[in-house]
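sry for the spam today, last one i promise. struct tokens for design, 115 residues
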């Protein structure tokens, strides 16, 4: 048993093993795991290749719609955050401009009263 673990560890830490492990997240295994685990899909209910194609197509559409919806929500949240930052910047610059004008006005008023 220890010999097998040693061989497995050597394979995983080798250059080829590291390359394979770095590519693993982009492979489709995760999607199938999510379908089985998160969506509780364990077996096909329709019979035959046509039924299989229809059922798997529907599941694929559901997964893709879910991903698209999450992306749209994240983009909306990010755009709202961007909008908030723009408004905050405008408020800060307006506040600075108002303070400058008040200061100039007060300086102008006090300069006349000193004469």
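last one done:
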């Amino acid at each position: 048993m220890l010999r097998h673990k040693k061989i497995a560890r050597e394979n995983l830490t080798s250059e080829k093993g590291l390359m394979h492990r770095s590519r693993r997240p982009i492979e489709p295994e995760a999607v199938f795991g999510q379908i089985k685990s998160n969506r509780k899909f364990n077996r096909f209910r329709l019979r035959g290749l046509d039924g299989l194609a229809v059922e798997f197509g529907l599941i694929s559409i559901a997964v893709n719609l879910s991903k698209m919806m999450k992306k749209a929500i994240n983009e909306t949240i990010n755009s709202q955050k961007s909008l908030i930052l723009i408004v905050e910047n405008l408020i800060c610059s307006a506040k600075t401009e108002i303070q400058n004008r008040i200061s100039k006005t007060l300086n102008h008023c006090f300069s006349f009263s000193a004469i």
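The chain has a mean pLDDT of 81. ok im logging off now
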